[in-house]
Amino acid sequence: MGMPETDAEIVLHTMDLPGDPSVHYLVDDVSNAVAVARSAGCVIREPPFDVAIGRCSVLEDPFGNLVGILDMSRGPRPI
């Protein structure tokens, strides 16, 4: 759901993940970022999947925090 007059958006999902707030980081390439994260000890909770603007993945860091990563390989969301 896009917010008027801003690039901010709310994304609803049905994945089997806790309802806690999460942080998402924009990366150049989700697949490459997943490989780097895995080698650094992260668990891939949700492998890369397609979204309207690119690809997304959900990682769990070594401390148990969930972190989303997103690329805009398909371009920004149309207004």
TrEMBL record:
Record protein name field: Glyoxalase/fosfomycin resistance/dioxygenase domain-containing protein
Signal peptide from the UniProt entry: none
InterPro entries tied to this protein: Glyas_Bleomycin-R_OHBP_Dase, Glyas_Fos-R_dOase_dom
Organism annotation: Actinoplanes auranticolor
Domain spans labelled Glyoxalase/fosfomycin resistance/dioxygenase: 26-67
Pfam families: Glyoxalase
